[in-house]
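In response to reviewer comment 3 from the previous cycle, which asked for concrete evidence that the modeling workflow produces usable outputs, we include below a single protein chain processed end to end. The sequence was submitted unchanged, and the resulting structure tokens are shown without manual editing.
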Amino acid sequence: MLVLLLASAACSTPAETPAASGGEAAPEASALSAPLPDEEAPPPGNITGSPILPAPVVLGAIGTPAVEAVVAVARPELNACYTRERAANPALAGKVLVRFAIGADGRVTSARTKSTSLWHPPTEECLNSRILALQFPTPAEGGTAIVTYPFEFPG
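The workflow returned the following structure tokens.
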């Protein structure tokens, strides 16, 4: 009998729930996701719920030290994306979180801005295109990797 009661409760719609339980109606999904009136705005560097990370996160068949080594060698070229744009906009500063995929051959197969507090598309597009050109060590056993890498441009 308990199983039937639980199954009945699981199958009921929100409109049926108050009558069955005698409690208040469940809030609609849109109400659950709406910001509260006194809720603070997301912190800088936070867009679509993804905060800027303090360090790279590597998921897959390649180690974080190998990824960091390749990025360190490419750092002057990656920083050039920012310094070129900063010459025209001295106040330009912020962080960019780039998510990229490394294929089985070590080539970057995709790169995109995941989060930004820089809010400067030309710099972000340049950064992503330069990351696409990087060559990483071949991931173990023909695997792949997903990397989320933070870049900070302090101004």
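The radius of gyration is 23 Å. We consider this sufficient to address the reviewer's concern, and the full set will be provided in the supplementary archive.
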